[in-house]
Amino acid sequence: MDFWSYFWLLVWTFLFVAYLMVLFRILGDLFRDRDLGGFAKVVWVLALVVFPLLTSLVYLMVRGRGMAERTMERDLRQADARDVYVRSVAGSSGSTPVEQLTKAKSLLDSGAISTEDFAQIKVRALA
After folding, report:
1. How far from chain centre, in Å, is Cα 66?
2. How far apart are the first and last CA of the chain?
3. In terms of domains, do 21 and 65 share one?
4. What is the residue-wise DSSP string for the chain?
5. Which of 22, 23, 85, 94 could form a disulfide linkage to 99, CB 3.0–4.6 angstroms apart?
6. Does 29 share its domain with 71?
7. What is the residue-averaged pLDDT of the chain?
8. pLDDT by residue (tens digit) across 8-24?
9. Which of 14, 9, 15 is nearest to 1 (CA)?
10. Residue 16 is part of which domain span?
11. What pLDDT band is residue 112 in, cutting at 50, 70 and 90?
């Protein structure tokens, strides 16, 4: 094989993978959309099977804006859920250095931790 054969193989492979990515994004959007009825989803899927390239282009033109809005809403919900989770995990260990030091001091006074452990907690809390 010569250089141009490899070049065109690379170009067609790239286009095929890009098409598959668009196709899976469209299918994911179809099944995530709560406003679209079941019959319409079946029609879109059948059209994607029979006329894949044309249907993909039409779908992106007709429903592209809604697809972007649904993706943004999903991403915002995921970011909010992640933030809530991070706050809940971070809050369980003491949200402020003063609270952490107060807990550590009470543990030290009760004998649950040693002075070396208290010093390490103090360094970590003040860092």
Report:
1. 19
2. 61
3. yes
4. --HHHHHHHHHHHHHHHHHHHHHHHHHHHHHH-SSS-HHHHHHHHHHHHHSHHHHHHHHHHHHHHHHHHHHHHHHHHHHHHHHHHHHHHHHHT-SSHHHHHHHHHHHHHHTSS-HHHHHHHHHHHH-
5. 94
6. yes
7. 89
8. 999 999 999 999 999 99
9. 9
10. 3-92
11. confident
pLDDT at 92: 54
pLDDT of residue 95: 62
Q: Are 118 and 105 in contact (CB under 8 A)?
A: yes
Q: Are residues 24 and 74 in the same domain?
A: yes
Number of domains in the chain: 2
45 and 101 co-located in one domain? no
Query: Looking at residues 20-33, what average pLDDT do you find?
Result: 93
- For residues 85 and 106, membership in a common domain is answered with no
